ChrB N-terminal domain-containing protein
Amino acid sequence: MPAEPSRHRVAVWRELRRIGALLLGQGVWAVPDVPVFADGIANALAQTKQAGGQALALNAAGRGPEDVARFQALFTAARSADWAEFLADCDKYGAELAREISTAKFTLAELEEEEQSLERLRRWHRDLTARDVFGAPEAAQAGIRLRECAAACEDYAERVFRALHDR
């Protein structure tokens, strides 16, 4: 890709990061050959072409079982890092709800904000689940934490409605 303007390279980089591609080396990215990645790869290729760059998309396989295992381990490690970040955001979400409850901040505006945050967590969980093709060990805990966040939000909503109706 042309060095300038850099926004084109950044856009392609963001697209590949968004789909969970692994950066193997300068300008070399890899994803498992499964349908969930097809649209993202197509988008990155189109962005590269529109920017006047060239891309080469290959189907590759490891030369032996150890190569396949190594790629799966690298890809799963990247998903584990994604899940760890997700779990940290679930913790922040729970702490935020606890703060609102402790200060009795029971407003519809705050409830709407918390519901939007929960919806963001749900979308993120859905996206990570789709990309986690080899099954990172943190995925199960993430599902549990998301359900806990949803239950905490429901509890907060009930408190908001009770506070609004009991006045």
In short: Residues 7-50 form one domain.
